[in-house]
Amino acid sequence: MLLETLRKEVLAANLELVRRGLVLYTFGNASGIDRRKGLVVIKPSGVSYDELKPEDLVITDLSGKTVEGDFRPSSDLPTHLVLYKHFPAIGGVTHTHSEFATAWAQAGRSIPCFGTTHADYFHGSVPITAALSDQQITADYEKNTGVAICRAFEGIDPETIPAVLVRGHGPFCWGADVAMAAHHSVILEAIARMAYYTVALAHDVDSLAPELHDKHFSRKHGSKAYYGQSSK
Question: Which CATH superfamily hosts domain 4-220?
Answer without folding.
Answer: Class II aldolase/adducin N-terminal domain (3.40.225.10)
